[in-house]
Amino acid sequence: MLPVVLVLVLAACTPAATATPPTETTPAEELPPAAALEAQRWLADQLGVTVEEVKLQHVEQTEWSDSCLGLGGAAEICAQVITPGWQVVFSVNGQEYEVRTNEDATSIRMQPIGS
Questions:
Q1: What pLDDT, on the 0 to 100 scale, is given for residue 32?
Q2: Sequence spans of domains, the chain
Q3: Using an 8 Å Cβ cutoff, are 32 and 26 in contact?
Q4: Residue 75 Ramachandran class (φ > 0 left, ψ -120 to 50 alpha, else beta)
Q5: Which segment, 6-10, 26-30, 31-35, is predicted with the most confidence on average?
Q6: Residues 97/43, Cβ–Cβ less than 8 Å
Q7: pTM of the entire structure?
Q8: How far is CA 15 from CA 4, 26, 58, in A?
């Protein structure tokens, strides 16, 4: 009986075969969310450039403090409700642009440059 217990104790202490850790992907390899692609098209239209000229730099899922994505103007009424969405940074000809969207990009706004 003692040898069986000893074998079980030793087996429990022996490290199991280690699994291969998941391969990390870089942001360039990940597909951006649909909202980021819609923001890219929107920014291209705003700037009068092709979509290919609008380079995706960074995408981050976030929650905005209001329905105006935190960018409401002084004369604008924004619902004070947490709005899930995306913060997307693009570059066009060396200039960076921050574009904010709600979750499905039905609302898109651009953070003023230098703010």
A1: 87
A2: 31-111
A3: no
A4: alpha
A5: 31-35
A6: yes
A7: 0.71
A8: 19, 31, 40
How big is the CA angle at 39 (ends 35 and 43), to the nearest 5 degrees? Answer: 175
Q: How far is residue 99's CA from residue 107's CA, in Å, rounded to a whole number? A: 10
Angle subtended at Cα 88 by Cα 39 and Cα 22, rounded to the nearest 5 degrees: 115
Check residue 14 and report its DSSP letter. S
**What is the C-alpha R_g of the chain?**
24
Residue 36 near residue 108, CB atoms below 8 Å: no
- Going through the chain in order, the beta strands assigned E by DSSP cover 55-64, 83-92, 95-102, 108-111
What's the rounded mean pLDDT across residues 16-27? 41
